[in-house]
Design a protein that fits this description.
Layout (H helix, E strand, L loop, with lengths): L1 H17 L1 H4 L20 E3 L5 E13 L4 E16 L2 E5 L19 H37 L1 H16 L2 H11 L6 H31 L3 H8 L4 H9 L4 H22 L13 H9 L4 H4 L5 H18 L13
Antiparallel strand pairs: 1-2, 2-3, 3-4
């Protein structure tokens, strides 16, 4: 049951990210200047005439500029348009009453749209970094465990050094020597590189231990006796024995990288406008002290992050997908 819930949460997040260009009602950088911090649009099926109608919305009317308080203008119904303009659903009158399913931020941008496109950025970054850490960590750990001796000591001391580095201070120092303005592709590559370097040691140490153990078993000795080269023995026989451990490490690193991206947004390593990510959305929301009390919809990226991390943990706690655990060949 818990595994099913976890898989459902992760699957929904991935599908939402993939379908963002169609599922999002607006473009990622669309602004509605008259709807700053507007609350979520309520979809109705019953009007003030007490009659049933196709789904529709009302226009938000600003009633207090200082408090940024809005009320529905129920004098006119605005029907929803389905499969219009390449979007799944949108308002039939975008200028007067845009569809804001999760409200608008302080710049008048649709939070729901940016949440979906932010999922593409944040999840894409986390997946890229996790697989990068897997490849680098598996190679380092495999070579260290297979060769032993001075090379093993050197590689493991290098991973120890990376693991004890204060990551946030290293990121701050790195940001200070970089250009003031970075493009979205540069930020993506930079964060992916940082996360790969930080995550690889955790994979490397586990892979090293498994490879050292597996190399002593009969099947490895038999393969070597039949003439298998060291590279063939390592790549085709020993490293595949670590796939369960690596799979678990990937599922642990992905949520860690999602949270790390949000954290680094606070030190100037966030994505530039108009690119959305969950980290930059939370950074923008935190600049307004009224968010928690008056504009809680701006914290929706935090809720999305929580649900994705929860989903991954539910999958792990229930034993994970079939074959995710490591089975000894003894």
């Amino acid at each position: 049951m818990t595994r099913g819930v976890g898989l459902a949460l992760v699957t929904i997040a991935l599908l939402a990210a993939l379908a963002a260009p169609v599922a999002a009602p607006h473009a990622m950088d669309a602004h509605f200047s008259g709807l700053l911090n507007a609350p979520p649009t309520v979809v109705h099926v019953a009007g003030v005439d007490q009659m049933w109608h196709a789904p529709f919305i009302y226009r938000w009317q600003l009633v207090n500029q200082l408090e940024q308080r809005y009320e529905e203008d129920r004098s006119t119904r605005v029907p929803l348009a389905w499969f219009s303009g390449g979007r799944l659903v949108r308002s039939s009158n975008e200028d007067a009453a845009p569809l804001l399913l999760l409200g608008a931020d302080s710049y008048g941008r649709d939070v729901f749209t940016r949440l979906l496109f932010g999922a593409r950025t944040s999840l894409g970054l986390a997946l890229t970094a996790a697989f990068g850490a897997m490849i680098v960590g598996a190679l380092l750990g495999g070579v260290a465990g297979f060769t032993g001796g001075p090379l093993d000591d050197l590689l493991m001391r290098a991973t120890d050094f990376v693991m004890v580095l204060p990551a946030i201070y290293v990121a701050l120092a790195l940001r200070s020597v970089l250009p003031l303005v970075l493009s979205a592709s540069q930020v993506f590559a930079l964060l992916a590189g940082i996360f790969t370097v930080v995550g690889a040691p955790f994979v490397a140490r586990g892979v090293r231990a498994i490879v050292r153990s597996e190399r002593r078993l009969d099947y490895a000795a038999a393969a070597q006796a039949l003439g298998a080269s060291d590279a063939r023995l390592l790549v085709l026989h020993l490293l595949p024995a670590t796939r369960g451990f690596i799979a678990v490490q990937i599922t642990l690193l992905i949520p860690a990288f999602i949270i790390a991206e949000a954290t680094l947004s606070y030190v100037g390593l966030g994505f530039p406008d108009p690119v959305a990510s969950w980290g930059t959305m939370l950074h923008d929301a935190s600049s307004n002290i009224r968010v928690f009390a008056d504009f809680p919809w701006l914290l929706s990226p935090a809720a999305a992050m929580f649900l994705v991390v929860l989903g991954v943990n539910l999958v792990l706690q229930s034993g994970g997908p079939k074959g995710l655990h490591y089975e000894s060949r003894l």
